[in-house]
Amino acid sequence: MVAHSFPLRLLLTRPPFPICTQFAISASSNVTEHSHDHDHPSVLKRLHGTFMVIAWLFFNSLGNTVARYFKKTWTNKQYFGTPVWIFYHRAYMMACWTLTCAAIICIFIDLEGFEAHAHSIVGLTTFVLVFVQPILALMRPPQQQAQSAIRILHRLLGHAAYILAVTNMFLGVGLESAHISSVMYGLVGGALGVHVLAHVAFNVLEYLARQKGSELDVNKDASFSRWRKTILMVQMITLYAFAIVNVVFVWRV
Fold it and tell me: Which one of 13, 23, 97, 192 is least enclosed by Cβ atoms within 10 Å?
């Protein structure tokens, strides 16, 4: 009797440790996975950052440079009946426009709406400015004064959009939900420095060309054209490198 009841009492009184342990491990695993997903940005957030980096640190900077300093370069060439500088400017800026629109779509889908804070407000303002730029570029009113006013507005809004976009990148790096290394502050600043130094170099060349005082031949490039092309190539390669490294940090876990 005693021999038969002892195993029965042991079975009834012994807690089901294996089942409890398995349940605890499973619950802990689920919490860990949820925490892991919460602690890292979604793919759409990373795509948003990627598109913005490429659009503004690379394409917009080059498009701005070509329009500002290369109107008297490649004067004897055309692409599809369009002056070369206009062709490159349109190509770079349309790439910037397309990527910016894609970035805005990605972040709106990810957040399922609009969250009001500094980064989102500045970003939406930038998007509005860049969205109207192609419209202004296509406007051709018959009055000369109206054309001049639209060109000035197009230029001012373009510069304002670039300043806001780069400023917003710094704000984006600082977002807690972005989980981006602070090293990216320096990387974005480096790309901005390349942009500024390129403008300084091009302005020096413009000053030297004016000092030289050579007459402009419509069928011949302006003075220091070879230097301008060289600086543009250096700017392009350097900005490409900075853009790639910034994108790596956007996706870095």
Answer: 13
